[in-house]
Write a structure and sequence with these properties.
alpha+beta, Chemotaxis protein chec, two-stranded antiparallel sheet, about 35% helix, DNA-binding, transcription regulation, DNA-binding transcription factor activity, transcription cis-regulatory region binding, transcription
């Protein structure tokens, strides 16, 4: 399952958004029925996980965190506690809860950014840019290729 692309959209007055058709098709083709939403750990955006990607992420965390270590338990608790389980209505819409709209600075205009196995939702007007400029991106790729 791969979500790719950068699609602009709007939320309605109730905070509902249409999941872009290209992303809906990927979700349906994989047999997924719900999405898990949480605030991104690093950026002012929201992340949608299909159930299978969420399960993989939780398995990854559980393998690395010790249930008998208080700090590890806090990390896991924080990651899993503030989530919403979303289902699409018959029209392909889902509700973004008001607290999530506020956390991500979303008023109405949004961007869906496909991130392979997840989807990010950004405010179209955020000062935090989801992308590097071309020169910075080129240098980052170059450094990855040389191992520097």
């Amino acid at each position: 399952m791969r979500f790719l692309g950068n699609i602009e959209a709007k939320t309605d007055a109730k905070g509902r958004a249409f999941l872009p058709a290209t992303f809906r098709k990927v979700l349906q083709a994989s047999g997924e029925e719900c999405l898990i939403m949480r605030k991104d750990v690093f950026q002012p955006c929201l992340v949608l996980y299909p159930q299978s990607a969420w399960d993989t992420q939780l398995d990854f965390l559980r393998q690395r965190l010790n249930r008998w270590n208080a700090k590890d338990q806090q990390i896991f608790r924080q990651f899993v506690s503030d989530v919403e389980i979303l289902t699409l209505d018959g029209n392909g819409r889902f509700l973004i809860p008001k607290r999530y709209l506020k956390l991500a600075g979303i008023e109405q205009e949004i961007k869906f950014i496909g991130m392979d196995d997840t989807i990010e939702i950004w405010s179209r007007h955020t000062d935090d840019k989801p992308f590097m400029d071309s020169e910075e991106f080129g240098k980052a790729l170059e450094a990855m290729g040389t191992g520097e």
